[in-house]
Amino acid sequence: MITLVLGGTRSGKSRHAEDLLPADAPVRYLATARRDDADAEWAARLEAHRVRRSAAWTTVEDPDVAALVAAGGTPMLVDDLATWLTGVLDDADAWEAPTVPAEVGQRVAELVAAVRSAPGRVVLVSAEVGLGVVPATRAGRLFRDELGALNAALAAVADEVVLLVAGLALRLK
Predict the structure, then answer these.
(1) In this predicted model, what pLDDT tens digit does every residue of 78-93 receive, in sequence order?
(2) What tens digit of pLDDT does each residue of 164-173 get?
């Protein structure tokens, strides 16, 4: 079963996603955030997520989320896909490119295919950024557009989709 949990900043999406999986059983938590030792505030955010996780869960920090999802195994939680996509855009030098590099589409397609054929329980967390204003910068618009397309593609293959707003879950699918 594939569940996509969407929401804005501080909407409760990660906590909701965590609550969908057993706290007392093995779960692979695929943490997509890249560490930056020079950014203490970012490190504190990552640590807050880490200490909230069950001791029975294993945290995996690997940018190849598609391969990990395809491999299956224990239930897994991927948190979050907006951060994963930021890394994909970084790796492809997409921020200043005149068009979106093909590598971005390839990585997204690989992830969607892996999710579609995932052999076990997968809970995906992603930001919903399409409800706000049009970003003033090209990079902001690029991110919003690419994340919106990723979310739509994942929603199409997910068994259920939930939107979190102000800590409240709204079942979309």
Answers:
(1) 999 999 999 999 999 9
(2) 999 999 999 9
Q: How many CA atoms lie within 13 A of 91 on its CB side?
A: 15
**CA dist list (Å): 36 to 32, 33, 41, 44:** 13, 9, 10, 11
Where exactly are the structural domains of the chain? 2-171
Length of the chain, please? 173
Catalytic residue of the set 49, 70, 92, 160: 49
Whether 16 sits among the annotated catalytic residues: the reply is: no
Q: Give tens-digit pLDDT for 44-84.
A: 776 777 777 778 899 888 889 999 999 988 999 999 999 99
Architecture of the domain made up of 2-171:
3-Layer(aba) Sandwich (3.40)
